[in-house]
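Final report, closing paragraph on structural work. Over the funding period we assembled a curated collection of sequence-structure pairs, and we close with a single example.
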Amino acid sequence: MQKSRMIIEVDKLLKQRNLSIIVAISLLISNLIMSFLLLFSSQEVVLVPNSLKDRAVISKNYASKQYIEAVTRDVVGLVLNITPTNTEYVEKEILKITHPIFYGKLKSALLQRSKDVTDRKISNYFFPKSMQVNENKVYVSGNLKTFLGKKMMSSDEKKYFIEYKIEGFRPMIVAFEEVRNVKE
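Its predicted structure, as stored:
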């Protein structure tokens, strides 16, 4: 009786040992596969600009005020700071973030402005002073300096309206226009 019981216990221990070995080998193989995938996969690093004070959020159909403000800073810098040497770059980059419903209108306006800028050697520099963000609509006020060659021709207070449509985690420009006759 003792002998048969001992055989059953040894058999049980051997099964547990074999099962432990199989689990250990499986874990070793899975770790090797994950290490191999990690070694050869690309990593993504998210950089947050220093200009953001609060958390910026974007989802499929929503962007936080902070995110829209950061995007607007880039858009205003691209569109309103222009020289004869950067017109092509500005046009190409701004059209990348323009919604299809506004694309044709903005492209023709940019082409007309590019021709004028290069022909007359005009340079514009915009210095933002304030920005009001309300959901996907933004008003930006500031000083626009216009140069003809090296001579400053004007320095005017301007206000611009920009509207975005959020599609697929991207704010796309659907309106960009100067607001005229504004009393501040």
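Residues 21 and 120 are 80 Å apart (CA to CA). The mean pLDDT is 88. We thank the funder for supporting this effort.
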